[in-house]
Amino acid sequence: MTHVTRHVAFYRSRTKARAPERRLAEIAEGLDPVSEAGAADLVVMRRDAYDALVRAAEDASDLAASRAVRARYRPEDYLPAALVERALAGDSPVRLWREHRGLSARALARKAGLSPAYLSEIETGRKAPGARALKALAAALGVGLDDLVAP
Questions:
Q1: Dihedral sign, CA of 73, 75, 77, 82?
Q2: Would you place residue 2 in the very low, low, confident or very high pLDDT band (cuts 50, 70, 90)?
Q3: Strands (DSSP E) along 1-128, which ranges?
Q4: Range of the domain at 87
């Protein structure tokens, strides 16, 4: 899965679901604790209630993981859907990230220490960037190297 497709999958996976914490509380209300002298506490429940409890606990864990990811999410780290579509159509990732960052070609070339003509050749696909140029562009755009490689 390419970096761009991971971003598309991330956007598509952001859906609302019923709160698992609420489902856990509903299930817990129907439990019947059993205690005998000298024995460990036990809880007796129907199988369907147990299965629902397991599913709700898994959902709660998934929700916590999702919230942790969202806490780290910064919109500027992802291309908007329109630019993702252009990337999938074959547009230059360097050009897309440059536009997303609001930089002119001349400003990006200056920031990356490249000539504007060389940057133009990279963006139009006439030349493949060397390792140094790719690293400089990634640093100037604030993205990873894999973001600048076409899908």
A1: positive
A2: very low
A3: 32-34, 42-44
A4: 80-148
Burial class (CB in 10 A: 0-12, 13-18, 19+), 60: middle
Among 18, 38, 73, the domain-final residue is: 73
Distance linking the first and last C-alpha atoms of the chain: 9
4-36 pLDDT, tens digit per residue, is 444 444 444 444 445 666 666 666 666 666 666
Phi, psi (deg, nearest 5) at residue 101: -80, -5
- Distances 101 to 12, 94, 151 between C-alpha atoms, Å: 23, 11, 20
How many helices (H) and strands (E) the chain has is answered by: 8, 2
Element (H, E) at 140: helix 131-141
Residue with tokens 């755009």: 141
CATH number at residue 121: 1.10.260.40
140 and 113 housed in the same domain:
yes
Count of domains for the chain:
2
